[in-house]
């Protein structure tokens, strides 16, 4: 198993946001994390990359055990090296060009030489269809284009897993497709992905596992085919029904 | 205009301009450099929320912003010698101007730092950069861009403010005008003349500011 996450707890001002989340991820898995807003999905994802500090929890990554509540700075750096994060609001560096956005982590963070970093960046930007905008600044791009650059930036460090936090939620409806297409391609290429999303088609057709959360608990966790075909828990049934209804 | 006044103005102009270029401008540049260094340091300490140091910074800003510049000049130059700290007029002026404007600029810089979205800092961590690298490559450049107009304002205000150094015996442009006036008694003419030179200096700075803003506007124009 590539990633084994156990018993993640997190409180914000005495409110339990995560009440013991477990998740197992195999290499090549695409896990859709679903659930109503406020269920703790985003917090869970952020805890895995230490953007939030969990109160407690264990992460076994490639056989190495980390304490999510007490990892040292070095351990955090080591985990972050193996992972990448795609944000809802893209969070591109606004003072950097498209190319620099992708190379910065390589040249500054990983001290790679510029030519090598540029090669990698161009390859990744070609993958997401942004190789023709190398010298543009983020503010000159649409949301969909920015998110594709953000995905290229995530790919550049050759992560073992990419976390996506609602990657299409800030996008205008007509721009969602281009980002989902890139993500689908990554999934087909075998990239391991954890995706917090409200895109049911993506969850149903691209992901192979679903983690359904509500109120800080895992309600259902299993293959996505079963989740959509035979939801067992009443809350899951209701959630799927509401989603389907809201789209009509 | 009388022949006499015209002669006085013509004779005094190169001399005043000379003091402007040789004293007022260097005094401004050195004091501004000090103010800029102080402001970045003080703003970063507050932005990063460094304990204790943060309190010291707030105290510094409180004192400086709550007391007049003229009083600060007098305190440092005329007051400190009685506790054994004797400064020459020039260093005293640089220190006071630097620390004074530095307090205002620190607030400008702090606001500019805070205007950079925290999401970009998080993204920086996620691509493997550390705090200092993120500050140097992402946050500070954007903060400087945001703060640039306000910092230019501070520079212009400091240039005019250096005339106050006259009160602690620094022989700068305004003091020179006073000296000449003491001989010839042409207050209106001489002080108008020195005002015009200040105006010319400030006009050049304003022009430089516009050029600078154009150059910095390169990251895609309008921000969201």
Helix/strand layout:
The complex is a heterodimer of chains A (248) and B (224).
Chain A: E1 3-12, E2 15-25, E3 30-34, H1 41-48, E4 56-61, E5 64-67, H2 73-82, E6 83-86, H3 98-109, H4 114-127, H5 143-156, E7 161-165, H6 173-188, E8 192-196, H7 200-205, E9 209-214, E10 217-223, H8 224-229, H9 234-246
Parallel strand pairs in A: 3-8, 3-9, 6-7, 7-8
Antiparallel strand pairs in A: 1-2, 1-4, 4-5, 9-10
Chain B: H1 3-47, H2 53-65, H3 69-79, H4 89-114, H5 118-126, H6 131-161, H7 173-184, H8 187-216
Helix pairs in contact in B: 1-2, 1-4, 1-6, 1-7, 1-8, 2-4, 3-4, 4-6, 5-6, 6-8, 7-8
CATH architectural category of chain B:
Orthogonal Bundle
Strand residue content of chain B: under 5%
CATH superfamily of chain B: MetI-like
Over all CA atoms, what is the radius of gyration of chain A? 18 Å
Structural category of chain B is: mainly alpha
Number of helices of chain B: 8
The end-to-end distance of chain A, rounded to whole angstroms, is 40 Å
Number of DSSP strand runs of chain B: 0
Question: Helix proportion of residues of chain B, in percent?
Answer: over 70%
The backbone outline of chain B, from C-alpha atoms, is flat
Number of E strands of chain A:
10
Strand order across the largest sheet of chain A: 6-7-8-3-9-10
Helical residues, percent of chain A: 25-40%
What would you call the structural class of chain A? alpha/beta
* Biggest beta sheet attributes of chain A: 6 strands, mixed
How does this model look, in words?
The complex is a heterodimer of chains A (248) and B (224). Helices cover 40% and strands 25% of the residues of chain A. Chain A has 248 residues and is an alpha/beta fold. In chain A, the strands form two sheets. A six-stranded mixed β-sheet of chain A has the order 6-7-8-3-9-10, sandwiched between helices. In chain A, strands 2-1-4-5 form a four-stranded antiparallel β-sheet, with helices on one face. The radius of gyration of chain A is 18 Å and the shape is globular. The N and C termini of chain A lie far apart (40 Å). By secondary structure, chain B is mainly α. Chain B has a single domain, classed as MetI-like (MetI-like fold). Classes of the chains: A alpha/beta (248), B mainly alpha (224).
């Amino acid at each position: 198993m590539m990633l084994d996450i156990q018993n993640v707890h997190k409180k914000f001002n005495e409110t339990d946001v995560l009440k013991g989340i477990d998740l197992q991820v195999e290499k090549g898995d695409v896990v859709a994390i679903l659930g109503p807003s406020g269920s703790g999905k985003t917090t869970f994802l952020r805890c895995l990359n230490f953007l939030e500090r969990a109160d407690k929890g264990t992460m076994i990554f490639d056989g190495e055990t980390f304490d999510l509540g007490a990892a040292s700075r070095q351990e955090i750096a080591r985990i972050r090296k193996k992972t990448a994060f795609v944000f809802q609001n893209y969070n591109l560096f606004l003072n950097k060009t498209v190319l620099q956005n992708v190379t910065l982590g390589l040249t500054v963070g990983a001290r790679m030489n510029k030519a090598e970093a540029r090669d990698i960046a161009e390859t990744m930007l070609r993958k997401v269809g942004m190789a023709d905008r190398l010298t543009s600044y983020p503010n000159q791009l649409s949301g969909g284009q920015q998110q594709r650059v953000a995905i290229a930036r995530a790919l550049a460090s050759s992560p073992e897993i990419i976390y996506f936090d609602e990657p299409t939620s800030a996008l205008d409806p007509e721009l969602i497709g281009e980002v989902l297409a890139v993500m689908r391609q990554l999934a087909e290429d075998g990239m391991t992905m954890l995706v917090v999303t409200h895109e049911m088609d993506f969850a149903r057709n691209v992901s192979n596992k679903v983690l359904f959360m509500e109120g800080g608990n895992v309600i259902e966790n299993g293959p996505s085919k079963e989740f959509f075909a035979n939801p067992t828990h009443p809350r899951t049934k209701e959630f799927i029904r509401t989603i389907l209804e809201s789209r009509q | 205009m009388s022949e006499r006044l015209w002669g006085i103005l013509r004779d005094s102009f190169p001399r005043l301009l000379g003091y402007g270029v040789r004293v007022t401008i260097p005094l401004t540049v050195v004091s501004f450099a000090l103010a800029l260094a102080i402001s970045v340091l003080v703003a970063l300490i507050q932005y990063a929320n460094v304990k204790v140091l943060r309190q010291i910074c707030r105290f510094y800003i409180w004192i400086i912003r709550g007391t007049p510049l003229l009083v600060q000049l007098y305190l440092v130059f005329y007051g400190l010698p009685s506790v054994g700290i004797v400064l020459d007029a020039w260093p005293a002026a640089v220190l006071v101007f630097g620390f004074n404007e530095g307090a205002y600029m620190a607030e400008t810089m702090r606001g500019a730092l805070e205007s950079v979205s925290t999401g970009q800092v998080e993204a920086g961590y996620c691509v493997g950069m550390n705090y200092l690298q993120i500050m140097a490559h992402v946050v500070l450049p954007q903060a400087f861009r945001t703060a640039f107009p306000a910092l230019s304002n501070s520079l212009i205000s400091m240039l005019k403010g250096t005339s106050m150094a006259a009160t602690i015996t620094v022989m700068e442009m305004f003091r020179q005008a006073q000296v000449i006036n003491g001989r010839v008694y042409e207050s209106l003419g001489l002080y108008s003349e020195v005002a015009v030179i200040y105006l010319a200096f400030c006009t050049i700075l304003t022009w430089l500011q516009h050029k600078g803003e154009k150059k910095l506007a390169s990251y895609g124009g309008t921000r969201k």
